[in-house]
Structure formats: C-alpha cells, structure tokens
Amino acid sequence: MKWINTDQIRKIIGALLLIFVLTIPFSAPIQQYLSIPDEIVTFNDQTPIQLPELGENVSISTSEESVQAIDSSNFYAEEAGNSELTYEVAGFPIKKVNLSVLDDINVIPGGQSIGVQLHTQGVLVVGHHLVKVDDTALSPGEEADIQVGDIILNINGDPIEEMKDVKPFVESAGEDGDSLTVKIKRGKQTMETELKPQLDTDDKEYKIGLYIRDAAAGIGTMTFYDPDSQKYGALGHVISDMDTQKPIEIHNGTIVRSSVNSIEKGNNGIPGEKQARFSSDSDQLGSITKNSPFGIFGKLDETIKNGSYDEPMPVALSHEVEEGPAEILTVVEGEKVEAFDIEIVSSVPQKFPATKGMVVQITDPELLKHTGGIVQGMSGSPIIQNGKIVGAVTHVFVNDPTSGYGVHIEWMLNDAGISVRKKSEEKAG
C-alpha cells in the first residue's frame, strides 16, 4: 500500500482551500453583495434611489421616515438629509448603506469669453536688477533678502497698494541717506527687512533693484453663475504670475466682456491660444474676490446670457460623471457661445477637493478645425453631460492638444460659496 505523507495532505488541503477562496468572489450572491455601496450621495431631485437586490429573503429597511420605499429596492427621499439603509435577513442586519440626500443645486452654465483684471495684495516682486554705484553693481533689494515672489505690504508702516506708492519712499530715503523698513509677505509668513536705496550713477536716480508688479490681465471662460446669489465661477484653475509662477494673491479684481478676434491653433508641444479684445473701459460684468486652485470667483453686477443654455441646470457630483460623450460651451469667434462635442475619457470620483478630476478629448470636427483642440483662453468652458453641469476644462496636454484635464463642478461650487454638502449637513444638525 502507498501511504500519503503529512506534507502531501497539507498541500492538497491548501490547494482545495485556495480554489474555494478564489471561486467565492465569482459566485452570483457574493458579486451582488460586493456591488452594494457603503455610501450613496445624491441630490433631492435625483431620487428614487435604486439599490442592488440580494434575493427574496433579504429586505431593506430605512432609518428615517422621510425616506420611503417604492418597492423592494427603490427608495424615494422626501427631503434632504442623512439616513441609513440596512439590508436584513430575518431581522438581522448584514449590510448598512449611509445615504446623504443633498439640497438641489441648479446654476446657469456660462461659456462666455471674459477679460480678467487682477490687482494684487500689495505689490509683487517679480525680479531683481542691478544698480550701478560708481564702479560696482548691486541689487539693494537682493541684499535686503527680498526674494522673487515676495509681496511688499507696507513701507515705514504705510500700506503699499500700487507700484506708484513705492517711488516717493525711495526718493525721500535716498536723499536723506536713510534705510526703508519694508514689511513683506512670503508664503504664509510676514517679516520686516531694512532696504537702503542706492543712487544709480548713470540715471542719477535712487533705486532699490527690484522689479515689481501690482496687476495682471488675461482672458478665460465663464463656467457658471447662480441666478439667486449672482455668485459665479470661471477658469477652473488658479491664476499665477507669469514670472514667479506663484498664485497671485489678489486685493481686488474685475471681469469684463471679451470678444475673440482670432485663434492660434495648437500643435504638438505648443499650446494654442485665443486672441481676444477687451480693455479696462469694457463693460464690467462683476468683481473678483477669490483666486484659488479651482478658478476665480466673485459676484456678477448683471445677468449675462450665452444664448444656448440660459436656464438653470442641475449639477453632477464626481461619482455621477460617466465616461463617454459630453459637450462644452465656449467661444471661437466674437462673443457667440457655441456647444461642441467632446469625450470624457476618464473621471475619478473624489470625496475631497482635488484638481484634474477628469481627462477630456475634443471630438467635434468644427472645433478641431478652428482651434486644433484645447487652447489657452478656453479654461473654464463648462462641461455638460446628461443634462447636468459636470465640470470645466482646465489644462491642455502639451503633446496632444486635442486632450486635457477637467475639474469637477462640485469643487468650483464650494469655492464660489455654494457648498453642495454644507446646506444638508446644517439641516441634519
């Protein structure tokens, strides 16, 4: 008789257990169970809510009277709030699903080309330059450890708001042979330094060896506005200084009407650009109060229209965005807003604010003919899918101008002061 040793028995049992474990996830009941989400977040106007069924012996109960069962797997929420749905077998819970029903939010999509005018907090240091003093050259600002990207808040205790505010202090201190006490902001820190102006031998002027700027301008696209509060969001990304590449801390700003007069098409390695016309005398549309990673935000002075979608539309949370066809609203000529076809290549559900939540690709032949894809100035173009505003175009892929990133609309709404979750949380509390 041939005996099987202990090691062989263990190997056989281990192999059988492995086969059993590997086959469990593929069984229909287990697959159904795994398809049940731990949490569902939706808007009040998007109910009923459908949950996977687990068979006749499994029932689903609710923790709130405001959530009513339509049948064994569909539920209707009568009002916004938080509740719990529980799968039960013979009264014993086997799975709990947290349900958050949010207050309905409807905003009007944009698409308009806008001119953006920003005024910085204080004056921004964008570079150093040398001052010729006899036979030497030096930068007084650099010697005072004032760095590119620093913001000059005040001089000798007096606030600095514009570039022209600096020159009188420099001339007075230079003539008296004094140093200036300069308060600067660097990141989140503020500090003071002593800066001594020097007389430029060639120009016979007192200088501090700093390049400064107090304003910035550009074009972009309106994403949405709330018809009730007149709050708006645009661009979908932060505005950074062209020299320092750091976000501009704004003191105030305005958006104005803008008209696109030409487009430089994008090619591989070179992003395209909208050429638009606007001036400080253009009709002001609204104020800018915030410059964040998700765009610029403020309030409109007047109601604006795009001619395509002028009625409020619901918004979609990140987990509701689907891969597939969508469209954007943008301007390619004059001030006319048009809808163009795109494809949402991928979308990442996000529970916390994050940029670059989507990858989009331009598919519309007409738009590709005009622009070659995504171009500068198109940032903020609203993305619409299944009758909802889902986000905005933000960045182009340099090596593929037909494609780029998009941001989910939820994070832009939050920065505009339209919190999709806070209202319901306050209501529940």
How many domains make up the coordinates?
A: 3
What best-fitting shape do the alpha-carbon axes yield?
A: elongated
Structural category: mainly beta
**Termini separation:** 75 Å
Tell me the CATH topology of the largest domain: Thrombin, subunit H
Overall strand count: 33
Task: Give the helix proportion (percent range).
Answer: 10-25%
Q: Indicate the radius of gyration in whole angstroms.
A: 29 Å
Mean pLDDT: 86
CATH architecture designation of the largest domain? Beta Barrel
Largest sheet: 13 strands, antiparallel
The top level CATH class name of the largest domain: Mainly Beta
- Oligomeric state, counting identical vs distinct chains: single chain
β-strand percent reads: 35-45%
The helix count comes to: 7
Indicate the low-confidence ranges by residue numbers.
423-429
Description:
There is one protein chain. By secondary structure, the chain is mainly beta. It folds into 3 domains: 94 residues, Immunoglobulin-like (Sandwich); 235 residues, Thrombin, subunit H (Beta Barrel); 79 residues, PDZ domain (Pdz3 Domain, Roll), CATH 2.30.42. The chain has 7 helices and 33 strands. The strands form 7 sheets. Strands 8, 9, 12, 13, 14, 15, 18, 19, 20, 23, 24, 25 and 26 form a 13-stranded antiparallel beta sheet that branches. Strands 27-28-29-33-32-31 form a 6-stranded antiparallel beta barrel. The protein has a 4-stranded mixed beta sheet with strand order 1-7-6-3. The longest helix has 18 residues. The C terminus is likely disordered.
